[in-house]
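Student: I would love a firmer grasp of how sequence relates to backbone shape in proteins. Thank you; the sequence and its tokens follow:
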Amino acid sequence: MKYLFALLLLSFCAAKTIAQQKPKQKAPVKKEMNKMLEDAQKMMDDMMKEMDPEDKKFMDSMGMKVPGVKKADKALQGISDKQLAKAWGDDTRMVPKKDAARIAAIAPGVPDSRLLTYIAAIQKKLMGAVNPELVKAGDKVYEYIRLNTKNSSEAGNIAAGFWIAGKPQLALYILGKVCVDDPKQTDNISNYASMLSMQGGQHLAIPVLNNLNAKFPKNSTVLNNLGQAWFGLGDIDKASKYLDSAIALYPFHAQANLTKGLIKESKGDKAGAVENVKRSIRHSFTDEKEGKLKQLGYKTQLKDVRLPFNPPADPLGLEKTERPEYPMSVSQINALLPYWQQFNADCDAQIEQLQKQAKELNEKYASSLDKLMAQGAAAMHGGAIPTVSVPVFAKKAGLAMEERRRYHEIRIKKLLDEFKKLQDDLTEIRKNNLNAAAEEPCSVQRDAVNRRLKKLNERRKKFDVQELEVFRHMYNDLAYYARYTSTDDLMFNMIVIPYKIDWLRKNRELQPLEMDYAGTFSDCVEEDKGKRGKLADFDDVACKIRDTTNLGVWQFVTTCTKLISKLNLKVIEYTRYENFERAEGDEYVESTLKIAIEKGDGLHKGPLKAEAKIGAAIEFEFDRGGVKDVIASVEGKVGIGHNVLDEGLEAGGNLGGKDVWDTTVEIGVEGKIGLISGRGSIGGTGKLEGIKLLEW
């Protein structure tokens, strides 16, 4: 019943989503929106009528009422059809309208001699555009950074930590103060311009980006950021020129390809749009990219993404299972039967133990589900709708698991054909190898049985080994990828324990034939020896991914399922455990933030290690839902920022066939940070849009 009720909550959330959706063909008017709300209400009423009485009784006992749409309907009363049409146009437009006013406000040039003055003027305007409390907090944080960092590079990196944490306005304000202190630190200047562009200040960012482009020609980061800025201003021709240049330098550029795909889509080039978005998702995965490909009629496949994991051969340790030998004679049956009996008893005992563990886990899960339902009850009274966070690598692991599942389905189908062939072969062996007549001597009868036993069990063993191999690979694959799709250890163990039980049952099921000959022909059977079997101690499918990005006051730890972010300003300590989903008050912008270890020239080859010096990098990929991908990469140095080298990058995303993640990857505050712009809001909601610098 409780599982059904959980589905009810999900259905309610889906109904709310449907009620908020807009028709694709034209902008809705209030009459149409009201009709959509009425349809949603009818859907929920019908759902309640069909509900199981036990579920309905449970809802009543929890004080949970049927959700209505009155609040949404009331919210529509103050909105005109014209406002709805504008909001609809902003939401569905693929490229922004050309903003002649902001383009005209672009400063003709900002030389190095006036860069400090220019940024200081922006900062002054920014203080009046954002919440005063943000300015107060930013000043406090900046003062701490100023007193606790060795140089402006470290200070700028700490400011970038607030971008990762979903605080873009605070990051911009703090970084601006750092840039005013040291306008010669070009990495900080580049990141500041990128932040300006992504918060509605494209017209303010372009003069700074032009300055950098003159200093660092043919740099993919600067060229992309210029392309994104012009895109935000609606000058699609200029945007395309810069984006094309960035893609020419790095064909799999995540942000340049995504925006270029939107431009091609707006011009009716659907195939070209698909190709660009596929290149973008190849570098890093986000929900937005997957959704865009689906909208364009393309389903994302495993070959389209790069995987951060490389499965070991036997993650569950199933190969450690040692089965007793198959007897090929009556004497071997006598020797091996006790071992098979013990092996089977061990299987039964371990199955019973695992079943008890599964029961305990189910009880814990039921308890957690009770809490979820309580949150759902609060949601129906106006509280927040409960959500289950999606682990960071879940979508990629899901694609891999889907591919492996299809593979194993084919193997199991072939196994069924092999089983039919086995039965035919065993029947033929029995037909052609009958027992000797009862009046024959003991040795003759024994030899006849031994001939048949040998043929039967050789054939049986051959098939059993094949079947166990098929199921061993399947259980290992499903368990391995469950580590990346499970929200926590509770869910993971609930998934994996049944695989362990099935493995034991499979071993219990596959047995030698004609073991009932034990103890026969005692007058002519000599004593033999056998080898005892042994069950495997199941291995834990441990998470092999753990990177630490330490940006002074910010520390980010990535594991298979979670991002742990910790802020420590001595006066403020804050730790958040999340599955890469946005928390209340967070704000994210489509972008990539890249942190690279840079201590000389050259390239670091092979898997990234904690001691990696040059070329090791961690990237955070954002869409509006938060951090959606974390990438370990190997890079070459090219001015500001880096270009990822995909030489040897095999299908599935491993560099040179090796897993690019090690147990730990550590990058500290001395790393080089580059913020790579993505497209901003098409409709225009940035805080900096209204800021114009006529004099500075």
Summary: The radius of gyration is 32 Å.
